[in-house]
Amino acid sequence: MEKIHDEYLAKMREISNLQESCQKALKHHNYLMKNVKDFVKKAEEEASTSEERKKEVGKVKEEMEVSRIKLRDMQAELPAQNNGFYLNLILGSNLNVSLLTKHERFNYKKEYEDFKWNITIAIAVLTIIAYFFSLRVVDSILCFLLVWYYCTLTIREAVLRVNGSRIKGWWMTHHYLSCALPGIILTWRDGDCYQMFRMRLLLFIFYISLVQLAQNQYQSGTLRRLHSLGEGHQMDITIEGFTSWQFKGLTFLLPFLMSGYLFQLYLVYSLYKAYISDSCDGEWQVWAMCLLFGVIALGNIYTTSLVILKKLRTEAAAYPRILALTRKYNSRTIMNNVSEDHHKNH
């Protein structure tokens, strides 16, 4: 056992030294690539009159792009140099959260998806219980669950980003803001104003939970299909919003998402009306929730609209090329059919 343990320690030290050497080599290579990029830029300006020189510069740029992709893949296999401010604040700056193999990263992502699925079901069930049993203790348990859920999501997503997931900044911010909402509700006293808003809030939580379950189910299937076809990134995750790869057949979920965003705006309106009325007696929780719901709703609508517009522009730009290829294919088919008929007649 001691012999095996000594060998293990030696291998660990060897791995650590190799990682450090590889990171230094990558850092140096990136520095050299930056110098080459500046050199190519100057050569490109000088080669404006020479066609031969342009071809040489174009070839070098293609090789640089290949090298950039290789370097990125190599960097992904090494521990991250920086966990980011959020993880450093929570876990400390000297803790390495990088997973060494693609298999470990994929398993962590899968566990993250399972966690979201199971907790969302628990939230939906607890919301139904809170609807039928109007007890403040049940509402408090639901709010504690929501705070814990969104706090855990932010930490897990920060780890996923370190390990290669391309999570958009807004959805991370969305989860940070979502942590605060149930926390504010916990401090809200059980009065007439709270009871007036309570049923609308429970209905909203239940609706969003159902939409998230449906979206998670279809997004997971789409991601598996894209990954198997080599069109998607292995560490892409399901989100509460809408992304470009969802146009692969998930556009039917878009009306339900937009309805949820409009529901959020309705909650903003109802909270504002309650705040300016005498029934809420100027409770700070009302205007705080009104502000947070407003920011979340506008951020969701803005981000989703940008994705849709970008996708429509991309498809519009690609349409002439697709149409030309279709005509070319059809013309070849027609010529082949004419040629076959000619041979048959002979």
Describe the structure.
The protein has 346 residues and is an all-alpha fold. It has two domains: 2-78; 88-318, no CATH class. It is built from nine helices and no strands. It has helices at residues 2-46, 51-76, 85-91, 102-132, 136-162, 169-186, 192-228, 254-276, 284-345. Helix 1 packs antiparallel against helix 2 (51-76).
Helix content: over 70%
What's the order of the H and E elements? HHHHHHHHH
**How many domain regions?**
2
Radius of gyration: 28 Å
Characterize the quaternary organization of these chains.
single chain
Helical/strand content category: mainly alpha
User: Mean of residue pLDDT?
Assistant: 80
3D shape: extended
Q: Count of helices?
A: 9
Beta-strand percent range: under 5%
Q: Tally of extended strands?
A: 0
Identify low-pLDDT runs: 331-335
Quick summary:
It is extended and about 75 Å long.
Considering the chains and any ligands shown, give keywords for the structure.
9 helices, mainly alpha, 346 residues, 2 domains, Transmembrane protein 120 homolog
Write the SSE topology.
Layout: H1 2-46, H2 51-76, H3 85-91, H4 102-132, H5 136-162, H6 169-186, H7 192-228, H8 254-276, H9 284-345
